[in-house]
Amino acid sequence: MIGTLDPKISPGPLAQKWRNHRDHSRLVSPNNRRKFEVIVVGSGLAGGSAAATLGELGYRVKCFCFQDSARRAHSIAAQGGINAAKYYQNDGESVYRLFHDTIKGGDFRAREANVYRLAEISNNIIDQCVAQGVPFAREYVGLLANRSFGGAQVSRTFYARGQTGQQLLLGCYQALCRQIAAGTVRMFPQTEMLDLVIVDGQAKGIITRSLRTGKIERQPADAVVLATGGYGNVFYLSTNARGCNVTATYRAYKRGALFANPSFTQIHPTCIPVSGEHQSKLTLMSESLRNDGRVWVPKRKEDRDRPPGEIPEQDRDYYLERKYPSYGNLAPRDIASRAAKEVCDEGRGVGPGGRGVYLDFADAIKRLGENTIRERYGNLFEVYEKITGENAYKVPMRIYPAVHYTMGGLWVDYDLMSNVPGLFVIGEANFSDHGANRLGASALMQGLADGYFILPNTLPNYLASQMGKRPSPDAAEFRDTEKDVRARIEKLLNVNGTRSLDSFHRELGLLLWDKCGMSRHEKGLREGRTRAQ
Known about the structure:
The chain has 15 helices and 17 strands. By secondary structure, it is of the alpha/beta class. It folds into 3 domains: 14-264 and 407-477, FAD/NAD(P)-binding domain (3-Layer(bba) Sandwich); 269-401, Flavocytochrome C3, Chain A, domain 1 (Alpha-Beta Complex), CATH 3.90.700; 478-532, no CATH class. The strands form 5 sheets. A 5-stranded parallel beta sheet has the order 5-2-1-9-17. Strands 11-15-14-12-13 form a 5-stranded antiparallel beta sheet. Helix 10 runs antiparallel to helix 11 (370-388).
């Protein structure tokens, strides 16, 4: 094994660990920062904020993104909101309560020191984004508005209608563009990382391929930062973009970086159901909709094919409100997902194939008026109508759980560095902050905390000892790694098989969904492993 699994957490009470860590961390002086070159792979909320902040500090940054523009990173697809402990609602919120809810929501399997740090930094994220001009929703008096998300009994989620990820990414993107114009950040769009280069046991660069020309290049650096998201697309059908292919973290794993908690996959209960084999991905409907929408199915199997408007109130089963009265329709994601599967397994699911439940806004529209619902969720209703052809103001939405987020990832210490020295992993690509997470609005919080506030403080702990140690792209390790990459590509191109890559991916993904999806047991896991082999 390369390196060690020392978490490097400072001693003392949780509330003092991050301050103690910063107080005793090594520094790189402003005049020396321009002597270091840092590679950031990924330009979403984590990667974009990291690249922009490191550039602002004076480091020379090379940022690589798979898309044609950093604005198209998958962070743009996040809808519902971002958590912070601002206590605007006078409802008992605090840094400790956000920490506790996040730890509890992860089944107590996240690293406590990292999660407390995340809760501490959450308020700084909101201030940073407001300063950038992110158009968060506001109350009539001008204060930032909050709404509730599943698994929490306070309102701590800040939002920009149903497009919070897009607005946060645009704020991040403008900070990145400023550094590109200043010359501290060089962008490499439509460029994929194909392998990690290890020199003397340390990450010192990557091998890339241009998606435009196919040109393979060696990219040396003093440190490498991976911000490439999760591995949800292993299930084939998920809410992730098709470009989320996990190549970067998988290649790092093959070079010695350890994976942690790979079995922890978040199933989102509020997605548009599968409609046929033509689909290559699924569409998320924000959890925020469960603030005003009520989830139900018919009480009797015989009513599953009846139009919802013809099913009287007494024949409807509002099963989340019935089973979990403390949270109601805002039950945690795993609970809401399993409950939906249970009622569908009983034969009470609605829609094609019986794999759907209703999310009904009739009561909210009657109580608040259609204009209010339109103001809160208008773009989400438009997306739903474009995909299904149904007007959710008139008939209930149909939803069903789908793979959404992965809590596992490459192992990192408190500095966000993997067991491979010099390889830092931030955002969804690492494992540290979510445990077996069941809560929403935490992913955006972690990505921006890592990029804006944590990595810039912890990266110098490694770089301070690396002055003048950046290897040449002509070093033997770069030549050998590039040779491996070319041989791997050549082998794939010469297979001359009879099946498409997509057919293998679909078969594997459906197998994983059936055997390792919402419910798992020993027999199914063994069957799945045998079939996968």
